[in-house]
Amino acid sequence: MPKHEFLTPKAIANRIKAKGLQKLRWYCQMCQKQCRDENGFQCHIRSESHQRQMGLFSESPEMYMQGYSKEFLDDFIKLLSRRWGTKRVHANLVYQEYISDRHHLHMNATQWETLTDFVKYLGKQGICAVDETSKGWFIAWIDNSPKALARQEAILKKERQEQLDEEQSRRMIDEQVERATKEAAASGMLEKLSENYTELKREAEEEKITLNISATISSTPASTITASSNSSTTPTSTSATPSLSLQKQTQKKSLSALIKESNIQPHKPQPPKEKEQRKLTAMEQIILEETERKKSRLKSHIVTLLNETIYHSKIVSYV
Protein backbone atom coordinates (compact mmCIF):
# COMPACT_ATOMS: atom_id res chain seq x y z
CA MET A 1 0.00 0.00 0.00
CA PRO A 2 1.57 3.32 -0.98
CA LYS A 3 2.16 6.01 1.61
CA HIS A 4 -0.15 8.98 1.87
CA GLU A 5 0.97 12.26 0.41
CA PHE A 6 2.48 14.91 2.65
CA LEU A 7 -0.48 17.28 2.87
CA THR A 8 -3.25 14.69 2.94
CA PRO A 9 -5.36 14.47 6.13
CA LYS A 10 -4.09 10.98 6.87
CA ALA A 11 -0.43 12.05 6.65
CA ILE A 12 -1.10 15.06 8.88
CA ALA A 13 -2.86 12.83 11.43
CA ASN A 14 0.06 10.41 11.44
CA ARG A 15 2.53 13.22 12.07
CA ILE A 16 0.41 14.56 14.94
CA LYS A 17 0.25 11.11 16.54
CA ALA A 18 4.02 10.63 16.20
CA LYS A 19 4.83 14.08 17.57
CA GLY A 20 4.77 13.19 21.28
CA LEU A 21 6.58 10.50 23.22
CA GLN A 22 5.58 6.92 22.58
CA LYS A 23 6.07 3.71 24.52
CA LEU A 24 9.65 2.62 25.03
CA ARG A 25 9.06 -1.03 24.14
CA TRP A 26 7.98 -0.07 20.62
CA TYR A 27 11.17 1.83 19.83
CA CYS A 28 14.02 0.40 17.74
CA GLN A 29 17.35 1.99 18.62
CA MET A 30 19.29 0.43 15.74
CA CYS A 31 16.90 1.91 13.21
CA GLN A 32 15.97 4.88 15.40
CA LYS A 33 12.30 4.33 14.62
CA GLN A 34 9.35 4.75 16.98
CA CYS A 35 6.24 2.61 16.43
CA ARG A 36 2.82 3.53 17.79
CA ASP A 37 1.48 0.06 18.54
CA GLU A 38 2.41 -3.61 18.70
CA ASN A 39 1.29 -4.29 15.14
CA GLY A 40 3.48 -1.56 13.71
CA PHE A 41 6.47 -2.74 15.76
CA GLN A 42 6.05 -6.34 14.54
CA CYS A 43 5.85 -5.11 10.97
CA HIS A 44 9.05 -3.10 11.49
CA ILE A 45 11.13 -5.94 12.94
CA ARG A 46 10.18 -8.12 9.94
CA SER A 47 11.25 -5.44 7.47
CA GLU A 48 14.40 -5.79 5.37
CA SER A 49 16.07 -2.64 6.72
CA HIS A 50 15.70 -3.83 10.30
CA GLN A 51 17.08 -7.26 9.44
CA ARG A 52 20.12 -5.60 7.85
CA GLN A 53 20.75 -3.49 10.98
CA MET A 54 20.39 -6.53 13.22
CA GLY A 55 22.97 -8.33 11.08
CA LEU A 56 25.44 -5.53 11.80
CA PHE A 57 24.60 -5.69 15.49
CA SER A 58 25.14 -9.45 15.63
CA GLU A 59 28.70 -9.07 14.32
CA SER A 60 29.86 -6.97 17.35
CA PRO A 61 27.09 -6.65 19.98
CA GLU A 62 29.44 -5.57 22.77
CA MET A 63 30.74 -2.63 20.78
CA TYR A 64 27.21 -1.32 20.11
CA MET A 65 26.10 -1.96 23.69
CA GLN A 66 29.10 -0.15 25.21
CA GLY A 67 28.75 2.74 22.76
CA TYR A 68 25.08 3.25 23.56
CA SER A 69 25.70 2.88 27.31
CA LYS A 70 28.51 5.43 27.26
CA GLU A 71 26.43 7.90 25.25
CA PHE A 72 23.46 7.50 27.59
CA LEU A 73 25.68 7.96 30.68
CA ASP A 74 27.39 11.07 29.28
CA ASP A 75 24.11 12.73 28.30
CA PHE A 76 22.51 11.90 31.65
CA ILE A 77 25.45 13.25 33.69
CA LYS A 78 25.66 16.35 31.49
CA LEU A 79 22.00 17.12 32.13
CA LEU A 80 22.34 16.43 35.86
CA SER A 81 25.43 18.62 36.27
CA ARG A 82 24.06 21.55 34.24
CA ARG A 83 20.50 21.47 35.49
CA TRP A 84 20.94 20.68 39.20
CA GLY A 85 24.68 20.83 39.86
CA THR A 86 25.65 19.14 43.12
CA LYS A 87 22.15 19.39 44.63
CA ARG A 88 20.28 16.33 45.85
CA VAL A 89 17.46 15.46 43.44
CA HIS A 90 15.09 12.59 42.71
CA ALA A 91 16.48 10.24 40.05
CA ASN A 92 13.15 9.85 38.27
CA LEU A 93 12.86 13.64 37.95
CA VAL A 94 16.19 13.78 36.12
CA TYR A 95 15.17 10.87 33.89
CA GLN A 96 11.86 12.52 32.97
CA GLU A 97 13.78 15.67 32.04
CA TYR A 98 16.16 13.57 29.94
CA ILE A 99 13.49 11.70 27.96
CA SER A 100 11.56 14.89 27.23
CA ASP A 101 13.77 15.17 24.16
CA ARG A 102 12.13 13.06 21.47
CA HIS A 103 15.43 12.05 19.91
CA HIS A 104 17.13 10.91 23.10
CA LEU A 105 18.97 7.62 23.40
CA HIS A 106 16.65 5.07 24.99
CA MET A 107 17.60 2.96 27.98
CA ASN A 108 16.55 -0.33 26.36
CA ALA A 109 19.63 -0.03 24.14
CA THR A 110 22.03 0.15 27.09
CA GLN A 111 23.39 -2.40 29.56
CA TRP A 112 20.94 -1.23 32.26
CA GLU A 113 17.47 -2.67 32.17
CA THR A 114 15.88 -0.32 34.71
CA LEU A 115 16.53 3.11 36.18
CA THR A 116 17.28 1.53 39.57
CA ASP A 117 20.14 -0.48 38.09
CA PHE A 118 21.50 2.65 36.47
CA VAL A 119 21.33 4.62 39.75
CA LYS A 120 23.12 1.80 41.60
CA TYR A 121 25.82 1.84 38.93
CA LEU A 122 26.32 5.60 39.45
CA GLY A 123 26.75 5.01 43.19
CA LYS A 124 29.26 2.17 42.73
CA GLN A 125 31.38 4.16 40.29
CA GLY A 126 31.45 7.19 42.62
CA ILE A 127 29.88 9.45 40.03
CA CYS A 128 26.94 10.38 42.26
CA ALA A 129 26.02 10.17 45.91
CA VAL A 130 23.05 7.77 46.00
CA ASP A 131 20.55 7.14 48.79
CA GLU A 132 17.25 5.24 48.84
CA THR A 133 14.25 6.60 50.74
CA SER A 134 10.57 5.79 50.99
CA LYS A 135 9.96 8.23 48.12
CA GLY A 136 12.48 6.55 45.82
CA TRP A 137 16.10 6.97 44.80
CA PHE A 138 17.85 10.32 45.22
CA ILE A 139 21.13 11.25 43.58
CA ALA A 140 23.62 14.11 43.94
CA TRP A 141 26.38 14.69 41.42
CA ILE A 142 29.95 14.62 42.76
CA ASP A 143 32.07 17.24 41.03
CA ASN A 144 35.59 15.82 40.62
CA SER A 145 36.85 18.36 38.10
CA PRO A 146 40.22 20.08 38.75
CA LYS A 147 38.53 23.47 39.15
CA ALA A 148 36.11 22.11 41.75
CA LEU A 149 38.92 20.40 43.66
CA ALA A 150 40.97 23.61 43.64
CA ARG A 151 37.91 25.55 44.85
CA GLN A 152 37.34 23.09 47.69
CA GLU A 153 41.00 23.28 48.66
CA ALA A 154 40.80 27.09 48.76
CA ILE A 155 37.68 26.92 50.95
CA LEU A 156 39.36 24.51 53.37
CA LYS A 157 42.45 26.71 53.49
CA LYS A 158 40.31 29.77 54.26
CA GLU A 159 38.49 27.92 57.06
CA ARG A 160 41.78 26.78 58.60
CA GLN A 161 43.10 30.35 58.46
CA GLU A 162 39.95 31.66 60.15
CA GLN A 163 40.31 29.06 62.90
CA LEU A 164 43.94 30.06 63.45
CA ASP A 165 43.00 33.74 63.61
CA GLU A 166 40.22 33.00 66.07
CA GLU A 167 42.54 30.99 68.31
CA GLN A 168 45.16 33.74 68.19
CA SER A 169 42.63 36.44 69.08
CA ARG A 170 41.28 34.29 71.92
CA ARG A 171 44.80 33.77 73.21
CA MET A 172 45.47 37.51 73.12
CA ILE A 173 42.23 38.21 74.99
CA ASP A 174 43.14 35.64 77.65
CA GLU A 175 46.54 37.26 78.07
CA GLN A 176 44.97 40.72 78.40
CA VAL A 177 42.48 39.45 80.98
CA GLU A 178 45.25 37.79 82.95
CA ARG A 179 47.38 40.94 82.82
CA ALA A 180 44.45 43.12 83.91
CA THR A 181 43.69 40.73 86.78
CA LYS A 182 47.26 40.94 88.00
CA GLU A 183 47.23 44.74 87.82
CA ALA A 184 43.91 44.88 89.68
CA ALA A 185 45.25 42.56 92.36
CA ALA A 186 48.35 44.72 92.70
CA SER A 187 46.31 47.93 93.02
CA GLY A 188 43.78 46.47 95.47
CA MET A 189 40.81 46.69 93.09
CA LEU A 190 40.24 42.94 92.95
CA GLU A 191 38.32 42.85 96.21
CA LYS A 192 35.92 45.53 94.98
CA LEU A 193 35.36 43.69 91.73
CA SER A 194 34.73 40.37 93.45
CA GLU A 195 31.80 41.54 95.60
CA ASN A 196 28.99 39.03 95.82
CA TYR A 197 25.46 40.37 95.43
CA THR A 198 22.60 38.38 96.91
CA GLU A 199 18.88 38.44 96.33
CA LEU A 200 16.45 40.27 98.58
CA LYS A 201 15.16 37.51 100.85
CA ARG A 202 13.91 37.43 104.41
CA GLU A 203 14.88 34.56 106.60
CA ALA A 204 11.72 34.52 108.73
CA GLU A 205 8.16 35.40 107.72
CA GLU A 206 7.62 37.48 110.89
CA GLU A 207 10.64 39.67 110.18
CA LYS A 208 9.97 43.11 108.71
CA ILE A 209 11.62 44.18 105.47
CA THR A 210 13.44 47.51 105.73
CA LEU A 211 14.84 49.32 102.70
CA ASN A 212 17.56 51.91 103.26
CA ILE A 213 18.09 54.05 100.18
CA SER A 214 21.00 56.43 100.40
CA ALA A 215 21.59 59.14 97.82
CA THR A 216 24.87 61.01 97.61
CA ILE A 217 24.34 64.58 96.37
CA SER A 218 27.28 66.47 94.94
CA SER A 219 27.66 70.22 95.51
CA THR A 220 28.96 70.76 91.98
CA PRO A 221 26.47 70.61 89.07
CA ALA A 222 26.59 67.67 86.68
CA SER A 223 27.37 69.94 83.71
CA THR A 224 30.83 70.71 85.09
CA ILE A 225 31.87 67.04 84.98
CA THR A 226 33.88 66.27 81.86
CA ALA A 227 35.57 63.06 80.76
CA SER A 228 38.65 63.58 78.62
CA SER A 229 41.81 61.69 77.89
CA ASN A 230 43.94 64.21 79.85
CA SER A 231 41.85 64.33 83.05
CA SER A 232 41.07 60.74 84.04
CA THR A 233 40.20 61.42 87.74
CA THR A 234 37.19 63.18 89.33
CA PRO A 235 36.79 64.47 92.87
CA THR A 236 34.40 62.58 95.10
CA SER A 237 32.02 64.62 97.18
CA THR A 238 30.99 63.60 100.64
CA SER A 239 27.95 65.77 101.14
CA ALA A 240 24.99 65.01 103.29
CA THR A 241 23.56 61.54 102.68
CA PRO A 242 19.90 61.41 103.58
CA SER A 243 18.43 57.99 104.24
CA LEU A 244 14.92 56.75 103.72
CA SER A 245 13.56 53.91 105.87
CA LEU A 246 10.32 52.26 104.96
CA GLN A 247 8.86 51.71 108.39
CA LYS A 248 5.55 52.55 110.00
CA GLN A 249 7.19 54.58 112.79
CA THR A 250 9.07 56.97 110.49
CA GLN A 251 7.73 59.55 108.10
CA LYS A 252 7.75 58.49 104.42
CA LYS A 253 9.71 60.76 102.15
CA SER A 254 10.62 60.36 98.52
CA LEU A 255 14.09 60.62 97.09
CA SER A 256 13.14 63.66 95.01
CA ALA A 257 11.94 65.48 98.17
CA LEU A 258 15.26 64.79 99.87
CA ILE A 259 17.14 66.13 96.85
CA LYS A 260 15.03 69.31 96.91
CA GLU A 261 15.69 69.78 100.61
CA SER A 262 19.40 69.41 100.08
CA ASN A 263 19.35 71.91 97.19
CA ILE A 264 17.43 74.48 99.31
CA GLN A 265 20.36 74.74 101.73
CA PRO A 266 23.13 76.36 99.66
CA HIS A 267 24.85 78.06 102.62
CA LYS A 268 25.10 74.98 104.76
CA PRO A 269 28.73 74.39 105.66
CA GLN A 270 30.10 71.31 104.00
CA PRO A 271 32.81 69.10 105.34
CA PRO A 272 36.15 69.32 103.57
CA LYS A 273 36.44 67.27 100.42
CA GLU A 274 38.50 64.17 100.54
CA LYS A 275 41.66 64.22 98.59
CA GLU A 276 41.31 60.63 97.53
CA GLN A 277 40.58 60.29 93.87
CA ARG A 278 39.48 57.30 91.87
CA LYS A 279 39.87 56.49 88.22
CA LEU A 280 36.88 56.48 85.92
CA THR A 281 35.96 53.12 84.55
CA ALA A 282 35.50 52.58 80.82
CA MET A 283 31.73 52.43 81.22
CA GLU A 284 31.64 55.73 83.12
CA GLN A 285 33.79 57.42 80.48
CA ILE A 286 31.45 56.18 77.75
CA ILE A 287 28.41 57.46 79.64
CA LEU A 288 29.98 60.89 80.16
CA GLU A 289 31.01 61.16 76.53
CA GLU A 290 27.52 60.19 75.42
CA THR A 291 26.00 62.80 77.76
CA GLU A 292 28.26 65.54 76.40
CA ARG A 293 27.46 64.49 72.86
CA LYS A 294 23.72 64.69 73.52
CA LYS A 295 24.11 68.12 75.12
CA SER A 296 26.07 69.47 72.17
CA ARG A 297 23.52 68.03 69.74
CA LEU A 298 20.68 69.62 71.72
CA LYS A 299 22.44 73.00 71.74
CA SER A 300 23.00 72.88 67.99
CA HIS A 301 19.34 71.96 67.47
CA ILE A 302 18.19 74.87 69.64
CA VAL A 303 20.46 77.28 67.76
CA THR A 304 19.05 76.05 64.45
CA LEU A 305 15.49 76.55 65.66
CA LEU A 306 16.29 80.07 66.86
CA ASN A 307 17.87 80.98 63.54
CA GLU A 308 14.86 79.68 61.66
CA THR A 309 12.51 81.63 63.95
CA ILE A 310 14.47 84.86 63.45
CA TYR A 311 14.53 84.29 59.70
CA HIS A 312 10.76 83.74 59.52
CA SER A 313 10.11 86.77 61.73
CA LYS A 314 12.20 88.94 59.39
CA ILE A 315 10.29 87.65 56.40
CA VAL A 316 6.96 88.38 58.09
CA SER A 317 8.07 91.91 59.07
CA TYR A 318 9.30 92.56 55.56
CA VAL A 319 5.98 91.44 54.08
From TrEMBL:
Coiled-coil ranges per UniProt: 183-210
GO molecular function annotation: double-stranded DNA binding; zinc ion binding
InterPro entries attached to this UniProt entry: C2H2-Znf_KIN17, DNA/RNA-bd_Kin17_WH-like_dom, KIN17-like, KIN17_WH-like_sf, Znf_C2H2_sf, Znf_C2H2_type
Leader peptide range in chain numbering: none
Bias kind Basic and acidic residues: ranges: 271-280
Domain C2H2-type: 28-50
Region (Disordered): 220-252, 261-280
CC per GO annotation: nucleus
BP term (GO), one: DNA damage response
Family: Belongs to the KIN17 family.
PANTHER family (UniProt xref): DNA_RNA-BINDING PROTEIN KIN17 (PTHR12805:SF0), KIN17 KIN, ANTIGENIC DETERMINANT OF RECA PROTEIN HOMOLOG (PTHR12805)
Name listed for the protein in its UniProt record: 3180_t:CDS:1
Organism: Paraglomus occultum
The organism's taxonomic lineage, starting at the top: Eukaryota, Fungi, Fungi incertae sedis, Mucoromycota, Glomeromycotina
